[in-house]
Each structure stands twice: as C-alpha cells, then as structure tokens.
Amino acid sequence: MGLVELLKSHILCHLIIGYVFLASGLLVNLLQLCTLPLWWFNKQLARTVNCRLAYCISSQGVALLDWWSGTKCTLYTDPKDYPMYGKENGIVVLNHNFEVDFLCGWSFCERFGVLGSSKVLVKKELAYMPVIGWMWYFLEIVFCKRKWEEDRIAVTQSLKKLRDYPENFWFLLFCEGTRFTAQKHQISMEVAEKKGLPKLKHHLLPRTKGFWVTVQNLRGSVVAVYDTVLNFRNNETPTLLGILSGKKYHADLYVRRIPLESIPEGEAECAAWLHKLYQEKDNFQEEYIQTGRYPGPIVNSPQRPWPLVNWLCWSVLVLYPLGVFLVSLVSTGSTLSILVSVAFCSAASLVFRWMIGQTEISKGSGYGNKGNNNG
Ligand SMILES: CC/C=C\C/C=C\C/C=C\C/C=C\C/C=C\C/C=C\CCC(=O)SCCNC(=O)CCNC(=O)[C@H](O)C(C)(C)COP(=O)(O)OP(=O)(O)OC[C@H]1O[C@@H](n2cnc3c(N)ncnc32)[C@H](O)[C@@H]1OP(=O)(O)O
Ligand SMILES: CCCCCCCC/C=C\CCCCCCCC(=O)OC[C@@H](O)COP(=O)(O)O
C-alpha cells in the first residue's frame, strides 16, 4: 500500500471529511432556512437559490466518489440522445442493488448540470436525517411512507408542485422500492407468480403505483423516461466506507431514453408497461453479467472540476476556525472545556457513522420481506 492509499484509509482523514461535511452541511441547512421568507415574495427565485445551496452539499458526495476514491463512471447510451441529457426534465428508473447507487446517480447529475435540482421519490425515514434529509425538504423532494393508502394524496400533491419548477431536473424512481436481497427477491417472485407475471432474475418485482402517479402528474413537464441500469466491474459491491477509505471502483451505467408520450395513460396499462420494462432491464443486466458490456456505444461524459473546487472552498471555510479553536483550547482551555469538546467531537463522529449506516443494505428496512407490506 502506497503512502497516499495509507493516508486515505486513515481514520483521521475520515474524521476531517466527516467534520467538513457536517459543519458545511449544517451551515447550508441554516442558509436554506433563511430563504423561507423569500418563498412568499419570489417562489421561483427561492427554488433557484435552494438548488445552488443543495449543490454545495450533494457535490461533496460527488467529490468523494470521483476525486477522493477516483471511481470511474462509464456511460453507455445512444449518442443521438446524449445532447438531450440535462436539457430536459426526465424520470430516471434505476435498479436498486448497490449501497452507493445514489452517489453514482449524483455523479451523472453533476456532469449534466442537474445535481442541485435532482429529485427522488424517497422513503420518509430519510427526511429526518441531518444535512441531506433537511436539504431535501427545501428541494421539494417527494417523500413516501411506502403505504399507498397514506401516500396517494401526499405524493400526488408533491408531484403537482414540481410542474412549474424553474430548473431542469431528473426525478429518480427506484421502482423496486427497496434494496435487492436474496430473501426480498424470493418473496417478490412469489408475488410475481401469483400475479402471473414472468420471473425476474436480477430485479425485485417493481411497485407500479409510484411510477404511474409520477408519469401522470409530470406529463407535460417531463419529456422522457431514462431507463438506466447500473453495475460495477469485477462483480464488486462498493460501500460508502470503502469509498471514504479511498477504494477505487468502476461503475458502468446504461441509459435508454424513452419519450414519455409512448407510455400508456391508464393505470393498468402503465403498470403492464413497467413490468415489461423490468423484463428488458433484466435482460440488459444478464447481458452485462455475461459479456461485461451493455448494448450500445460508450459515450464520453467528462467530469467537471466544480465538486472538487466546492469541497476545497468549504474545507478552508470550516477547518480554519476549527484550527484556531483547537489551538486556543490546548493553550488556554480548562480540563472541563477540553472534555466537553472531546464529547462533542465524539457525538459528531457517531452521527456521521450513523448516516453512513443508512446506506448499508445489512441495516436496511424489512419492507418487501414476508409479513411486511403485503409480502
Ligand atoms: C444520463 C444519466 C442518467 C441518469 C443518472 C441516474 C440517476 C440520477 C438521478 C437522480 C438522482 C437524485 C437523487 C438521488 C439521491 C438519493 C436517493 C437515495 C435513496 C432513496 C431511495 C428510496 O428511498 S427508495 C424507497 C422509496 N421509494 C419507493 O418505494 C418507490 C417505489 N415504490 C412505489 O412506487 C410504491 O408504489 C409506493 C411507495 C408509491 C407505494 O408503496 P406500497 O408498498 O403501498 O406499494 P404498492 O401499493 O405499489 O404495493 C402493493 C402492491 O405490490 C404487491 N406486492 C406485495 N408484495 C410485494 C413484493 N414483495 N414485491 C413486489 N410487489 C409486491 C401487492 O400485491 C400490491 O399489488 P397491486 O396489484 O395491488 O398493486
Ligand atoms: C466530502 C464528504 C462527502 C460526504 C458524502 C456523503 C456522505 C453522506 C452520508 C450519508 C448519506 C445518506 C444518504 C442516504 C441515501 C441513501 C439511502 C438509501 O439508499 O436508501 C435506501 C432506500 O432506497 C431503500 O431502503 P431499504 O433498502 O428499504 O432499507
């Protein structure tokens, strides 16, 4: 292991990265809170300002993936569709097998200039997470309880609000509703059998209601569905802790652009369309496993330097006062103030570790398991 690798895997580096993320993130959350009065005077301006502020947070995740760990993300897509990416609103349908799929998603959003405005149908539990959950609130992210009777009205209302959003956005849907595990797969295939649907080898059976309600409510504002399949080379299953330790991975993303007008309007027809899409996704996944490639050519989608610039700026801004504080603490601080500071740093480290834990599949929800949500 070289010196740089050793440094990247050192806990002190992780603590510094965690401190920069939490301190800058909470500052941004505070700035977002200050934009509240603006919503009454100029809603569109408030939304644009919040997109820029959110970029300051999510692009730190991209900096970690692209610049710190050096992970490469390769895009397979039709070159004819490429110029449209980032220039129109799209619904992204992605497989949900990996702990860092959201980071790869963010990395592509960054490359196409839609990182600050990107949206997702996300489980309500994440709304309470400091920094990211609070940032999402100001981005008008759509939260769901994964209980349709309770979600139907709230999700529809949130989606309707996005119709006049002033920035181009991608709306991410993990239609499987939860991360892939062998047990959840087996249960969802039992459901597929009962419903007379063909079995899927690499995906859980998609939940169709969220997709239907999203397509219906964003029609006219969203132009296309981006069917996307994500995989990592060499059968790797990357983790956020691995990325934090500087481990380099190689992601391959397949994107297929489908015009929204080709998707049926009726609920049953739309559901059938989505089931067919997942059968096709399953075939692309199989092809990747067999050949290490997707259909279609690789298109160069270059990284931009802004996530790194943003990260360095925030690091200077929050590390300098920390340094000054630590020097004065060591030189003049009482034992009590040193103990309080140590306790505070330990609590912050625990919060950061807890946030990372939210990405770990082994700590995932029981949604989709037997006895849980219609399983
Ligand atoms: C060029 C590059 C392009 C792209 C780049 C890629 C991406 C970048 C884009 C954007 C990035 C933006 C942000 C990313 C950042 C972070 C996000 C990170 C993670 C958060 C994600 C989540 O939180 S996922 C969980 C929440 N989301 C969802 O659940 C969405 C899917 N779910 C639905 O749509 C649901 O329908 C629902 C949530 C709306 C309602 O849930 P409910 O459970 O009530 O669902 P249903 O009513 O649909 O379920 C009941 C029906 O399902 C049948 N059933 C029962 N058991 C099962 C089972 N085990 N599996 C499957 N189906 C089952 C049951 O029989 C019912 O059937 P019906 O016939 O009655 O419908
Ligand atoms: C330079 C600093 C960089 C910091 C990098 C960012 C670190 C942020 C730490 C945590 C980010 C948490 C984001 C959580 C979003 C991902 C969670 C997720 O993937 O949810 C799973 C959900 O779909 C389904 O849940 P279940 O599978 O049912 O359970």
Automatic annotation (TrEMBL):
Pathway: Lipid metabolism; Phospholipid metabolism; CDP-diacylglycerol biosynthesis; CDP-diacylglycerol from sn-glycerol 3-phosphate: step 2/3. The keyword Protein biosynthesis does not apply. It comes from the Eukaryota. It is an enzyme of class 2 (transferase). One of its GO terms (molecular function) is 1-acylglycerol-3-phosphate O-acyltransferase activity. Residues 90-212 form the Phospholipid/glycerol acyltransferase domain. It catalyses: (4Z,7Z,10Z,13Z,16Z,19Z)-docosahexaenoyl-CoA + 1-(9Z-octadecenoyl)-sn-glycero-3-phosphate = 1-(9Z-octadecenoyl)-2-(4Z,7Z,10Z,13Z,16Z,19Z-docosahexaenoyl)-sn-glycero-3-phosphate + CoA; 1-octadecanoyl-sn-glycero-3-phosphate + (4Z,7Z,10Z,13Z,16Z,19Z)-docosahexaenoyl-CoA = 1-octadecanoyl-2-(4Z,7Z,10Z,13Z,16Z,19Z-docosahexaenoyl)-sn-glycero-3-phosphate + CoA; (4Z,7Z,10Z,13Z,16Z,19Z)-docosahexaenoyl-CoA + 1-hexadecanoyl-sn-glycero-3-phosphate = 1-hexadecanoyl-2-(4Z,7Z,10Z,13Z,16Z,19Z-docosahexaenoyl)-sn-glycero-3-phosphate + CoA; a 1-acyl-sn-glycero-3-phosphate + an acyl-CoA = a 1,2-diacyl-sn-glycero-3-phosphate + CoA. Belongs to the 1-acyl-sn-glycerol-3-phosphate acyltransferase family. PANTHER family: 1-ACYL-SN-GLYCEROL-3-PHOSPHATE ACYLTRANSFERASE DELTA, 1-ACYLGLYCEROL-3-PHOSPHATE ACYLTRANSFERASE-RELATED. This is 1-acyl-sn-glycerol-3-phosphate acyltransferase delta. It comes from Merluccius polli (Benguela hake).
